[in-house]
Amino acid sequence: MARSVVVTGSTSGIGLGIARAFAAEGANVVINGFGNGQEIEAARAELEKLGGGTVLYHSADMTKPDEIEDLIRTAEQSFGTVDVLVNNAGIQHVAKIEEFPVEKWDQLIAILLSSAFHTMRNTIPLMKKAGKGRIINVASAHGLVASPFKSAYVAAKHGVLGLTKSAALELAEFGITVNAICPGYVLTPLVEKQIPATARERGISEEAVKTDVMLRLQATKQFVSIDEVAQTAIFLASDAARQITGTHISIDGGWTAQ
Ligand code: NAD
Prior knowledge:
The chain is 49% helix and 14% strand. The protein is an alpha/beta fold and 258 residues long. The protein has a seven-stranded parallel sheet with strand order 3-2-1-4-5-6-7, sandwiched between helices. Helix 4 (102-130) links the parallel strand 4 and strand 5. Helix 1 packs across helix 8. The termini are far apart. The mean pLDDT is 97.
């Protein structure tokens, strides 16, 4: 039977790539996120053609626990359960701590960290009932190391790794694995948007942000591709990964080796 997969924040970037990879394997997928309605529908229809599974869109806002609950309920009602949960939705804000807008801090923590708690608390009973499940949290190299001006993002991503480990221990005997993926810089809309802000904060050109800030620590001097992250999610959801739990896989071109 086709697996049931929920990917938060999958109307763009890494999440869309992960949803595409699962859809191509024939999974039933719920995609989620913001954007233009026609573009989302086009993406949904394109994914559905890939592997023969059903692909649904749910508009849950990851800052709203009741909408997150409805997202998981929709997956359960449509596909019977949730086999794979991918917590991926994210935004970024770059500013000095003393100038960091309080509402931005709250929004980043809600979307990047608390939403994973809410998806998990609604999904775990379904996975326990099924006696199996895979939870994959898209964290970041910033879950392991810090950069200046990204306090909320770094704090939330470090939190995601803590949540990953705690959940893995709670769920280890129920056939459910919980892991994180820690990408370095991937050229997605999220990264494109922070280039001007980082250039402003550091007083350097936008090109210098790419080469001297983003790729400075990526030893390969290359951006990570969306598909490389997506295929890691496919691996973590495979049978071969059944003893991998409570840990992370870095895909950061050697950044965190330094
Ligand atoms: P992106 O901007 O391309 O996609 C983000 C997705 O999250 C979109 O679908 C957007 O609509 C959705 N989203 C934003 N706010 C939401 C909300 N309140 N409710 C529901 N959905 C919401 O960004 P991306 O680069 O693909 O990032 C995806 C994840 O990967 C994020 O968690 C990010 O932190 C992480 N990540 C990205 C990079 C990178 O270099 N791009 C590196 C490491 C980790």
